[in-house]
Each structure stands twice: as structure tokens, then as C-alpha cells.
Specification:
The chain is mainly alpha-helical. The protein has nine helices and two strands, in the order H-H-H-H-E-E-H-H-H-H-H. Strand 1 and strand 2 form a beta hairpin. Pathway: Protein modification; protein ubiquitination.
């Protein structure tokens, strides 16, 4: 979904980060939820980025390698780190894709769609294997034999094609129940 949101020029969020890199998301949540000054992490507005074995230092903002992350500015750090992770190394490719795409479909036409509708428009309907979906679902606060979960899968099986597709896309294909 983050790519489609970028096509629509929508702001990317922590939820988008969670969908593509749960471990990185959890790290940023830990920083958000803990007093980093007490931990002595000594972080700056800088990060390392590896490309083909070469490690480069990236400043998240001008002068970032000299700016210490504190309790007062950690929200800005988290926002900048999230934006960097969601776009790292893809800026040029995304720009070229959008330039080419806009030659076929004017980007202003896309404003009538949300990111899920845009994905459906561009990728079409896909066959959904409910058994595979059920087998790979991660449950939080429930388990496979909870009556609500059993009902959920019964409804999915009953309404199979359209509604299962809608439910799957509503929860961005990585449904956690």
C-alpha cells in the first residue's frame, strides 16, 4: 500500500512502515515508548545505509550527524527515520515510474481513488485461497479455535469471492486477528 499512497501523494504513516518492515516499526515504537536519555543510546539524526556492500552515512536532516536525539526531539527523529525507511533508495525510481505512468494516465485522475482502489485498478482481482489465508493468519488476542475466528472464516467461505477480497484488502493483505 505505501507505493500506491505515494502515487496518490498521500502522507505515509507508521502503519505503512509496519506493513513493510515490522521489525523496524517495532524499533521505532520502542524509541517512542521509552525514555531514550535514560538508556544512554547516544543516537543522532543520522543512519547508515548499505548498498552493494558499501555502507554510507545518511543524515536525516541537515547537520543531523551533530544533532543528538533527546526526549524533546525524538518524535521528529521517528518521523524522519520512518520517511527515510519508506523511501530509501527509491526516490529516483518512483519519480521515473510516475513520469512514465503520467504519460499514459494523468496523475490528477488518480485523486478519485484511495490506495486500495488504485491497487485493484492497476492489478485487478486476484484469486484468493482462503485456506492458505487462514493457514498463515497471525492471531492477537484470539486463537484459531475462538468462536469469533470460526465465525469469521465461515463468513469468508460463504461470501467467498467478492467479500473475502474486500476484507483481505481492507486489512492490507496481512490480516492480524
Amino acid at each position: 500500500m505505501p507505493f500506491y499512497k505515494r502515487m496518490l501523494n498521500k502522507k505515509l504513516t507508521m502503519k505503512d512502515l509496519e506493513s513493510i518492515d515490522p521489525e523496524f516499526y517495532n524499533s521505532l515504537c520502542w524509541i517512542r515508548d521509552n525514555n531514550i536519555e535514560e538508556c544512554g543510546l547516544e543516537m543522532t539524526f543520522c543512519t547508515d545505509f548499505e548498498v552493494l556492500g558499501k555502507i554510507s552515512e545518511v543524515e536525516l536532516k541537515t547537520g543531523g550527524k551533530d544533532i543528538q536525539v533527546t526526549e524533546e526531539n525524538k518524535e521528529e527523529y521517528i518521523e524522519l527515520m520512518m520517511q527515510w525507511r519508506l523511501t530509501r533508495g527509491q526516490e529516483a525510481q518512483t519519480r521515473y515510474f510516475l513520469e512514465g505512468f503520467s504519460e499514459v494516465v494523468p496523475l490528477e485522475w488518480l485523486k478519485y481513488f484511495d490506495e486500495r482502489e488504485l491497487e485493484l485498478l492497476l492489478c485487478g482481482m486476484q484469486e484468493i485461497d482462503i485456506n492458505d489465508w487462514q493457514k498463515h493468519t497471525i492471531y492477537r488476542h484470539y486463537n484459531r479455535s475462538s468462536k469469533q475466528i470460526i465465525w469469521f472464516w465461515q463468513v469468508c467461505a460463504y461470501y467467498y469471492y467478492y467479500y473475502s477480497f474486500y476484507i483481505l484488502h481492507t486489512y492490507q493483505a496481512d490480516i492480524v486477528l
